[in-house]
């Protein structure tokens, strides 16, 4: 039920009402009524933040994320670029020059790898420990926030149940009182009808006696 200010008010006490248990046939009526309800919107509520696009500025990482999400196997490494094929005989000077350039590129690549391995051996362990510490701290904060939300949810549900039990008992007492009052009114009306009939009978009897 919508109020004048647009606020949705649901007249229901799910923690207290037991009509569905008392009257099982109401389940079919509830299902029929729910089938008439409009489908839930597919878009998020405006108050929710927009979805975060991971690795939007890195197509390589985005493609890798999509591969993992699709459970696809990792493609085999291309080792051809690391080989040093000699030109087939007879080879021209240009082909030999290309082979030499390739060998120099492979040599430079191995030098860079050695430098990276040396840097990793020197500083990698500390950087790894710091990263692990940060990740553990973030995980602990997230778990703490999750536990707080769970406790808050339990507390909200507990308060709802207590308030609904309280209001439900008041409603039951008022409904019982209303039934008693209606019964009293009906008894009074029945007594009035009987009294009117008795008065009419006495009036008629009086008229008959006056006629005699």
UniProtKB/TrEMBL annotation:
InterPro entries: SPF27. GO terms for biological process: mRNA processing; RNA splicing. It is found in: Nucleus. Residues 93-205 form a coiled coil. GO terms for cellular component: catalytic step 2 spliceosome; precatalytic spliceosome; Prp19 complex. Keywords: Coiled coil, mRNA processing, mRNA splicing, Nucleus, Spliceosome. It comes from the Eukaryota. Pfam families: BCAS2. Belongs to the SPF27 family. This is Pre-mRNA-splicing factor SPF27.
